[in-house]
Amino acid sequence: MTSSQRLGCAVSILLMALTSGPANGQWFSFGAKGGASPVWLTGNYRILGQASSRQGTFQEQPPDIWRAELNPTLSLYGLPVTANLLVSSEQRDIRQNINAFSVTLDPDAIKRIVAQRATTMLEAYARSEAGELLDRYDSIKDSLSAYDPEKLKELEQYRKIQEMRELANGDITNYSSVLQEMGLMSDVEDFMQKLPTVGFGTVFPTFSPLTLSGARVSGGWGEWNPGGVFYIAGVSGTTQRPLYRVDSIRIDTTVFRTVDNSDFGRQLYGGRLGFGRQSGAHFIFTGLYATDDASSLTLPDSGVTKTPQRNYISSFSVRSEPVKGIWSFEAELAGSLTEGDQNAPRIGSPEVPDFLNTLIDSSVSAYIDWAFTGSTTVNLASSGTRLVAKIRRIGAGYNALGVPNLRTDYIRYDARIDQKFWKRQLSVGAFIRHDEDNLADVKRSTSTLSSWGANIGLNIRAWPFIRLSYSPYTQVNNSRDTFLQYRNETVIWSVVTGHAYRLGTFGANTTLTLTRQDAETKNHVNDYSVTSANLSQSLSFTVPLTLSAGLGYIVQEMPMEDATSIFTVDGAAAYAISESFSTSGGVTLAFDSMYGTRSGFYLSLLAQLGDYADIDLRVERNIFNESVIPPVLGGSYTENIFRLTIGKIW
Question: Based on the domain organization, do 358 and 256 belong to the same domain?
Fold first, then answer.
């Protein structure tokens, strides 16, 4: 089919959707229960208000806050447009923006809706008599081919849906034909889900963990992956606004003032280009540029470490499935060039054209480095075997201004294997990991973290379950200065067992958890051990009442010191007054042999007002009677919290 023919087909589908009347005679529907119509409004909202008698110790969040969220989605002939609005009283001039608004054209919502339809139909089929054939497909397919080809076709369709759920992670790109054959996706939806995703306002795009992830961007972004063949994405906007902040730091009796928590205004631009599906087999090139506006903030000339930066990143990522559904691997190689201070002197020559000096970024503050991530997965569903191996290397000089709080200067190797036996009632797993820093060999020492562990789980039907885990960790450095050397060895093991059972007309659940942590340090200076035991019990009655209680005991031991212990008791109850009203409450007590006692209780009322609102009213009171820490440092205090949440998914 030529491009003009494809365009004509798309226009025909769209015109058919616009000119044909709705099957149910209704053009507009509100809420998920309204039924499918050409124009369909769904979404959710949430309003939270909280009042407290005190501000949290060492916290900036005020004691009284409110937040309002509204996320409506308007579906126009199968094309969903989503708006996201967040407004909060926590918005302050001393921090970056919290309030946010965006509008997104999101065809991926169609994929999620269709995938949910398919999963619901598959679950219903699996519970039916015919669904039992799914587990016996290999042994009966030949006989069905000869005696009941229609039943075989139906079975193969459901096996395709099962494969989509288990392997495609909701990506329906390669399953459009079978979804249409089964009536799970219309022609209009098939056309709409191939359109690009476009968002404006405050957006949170993700390129990859090494380039752009978790950054708030005020601007716009788009992503398009037609047919899962060609992939293109782009982003442009502001990631932080200029912020002048003066903080006071008290050291002993001396107070210092600092503005290092200030921020320059920062712009970010990026693009991606490649082939394949982002969630499947692909190879994609990524480019990213972020720059601070050096003129957006005036800082003192001395005593300030904050500088305007500039960052260039390029990366290449690849993912492949040599054996579909069984073996896959993916990797990303990225390099970054960072100008640490735009005001730093530059190394240039008058004989070199200005554009070349600018192109190579000749600032004396410039530095470069690279990062690499790779992983491979083997998943043998027939034998219950899963093996994952990963490597992650991020250089000391690698910088990504689009990835907040990115840890650098380390290399990590880790692997994990999980195996299921005895009709998946017995599971065994093991892992190993090794971390090492000082990749540029500029620190005084290199630190390494080595760990391994194993776990076993036994879950026999109608019997109590049990899970065991054991994991030792070793952290050490090789400093030549013996005073700076350290070696920490920690061993953690745990046992969890529990059972859900009946006591006459009561339903009951009992869980017991035992944990032990032993730490050994160099010269045994800071050795310690912590042992904890927790027992929980719940009861449900024929009336809409549920009771739960728990007991806990924690003891910490250190050489040459008295052991300290904490004994905890908690209880809770929930009662459904009617289909629309329920209430719950609970109490917690903790007796600390060193710090004193802590107690608290809460009461909650939940009301469902039809299709309009779910109201959750909660009152808390916490009392800390500390015998060691003074009140000014967060010791003894009484805290009252009143919280009201109103929301609804419609």
Answer: yes
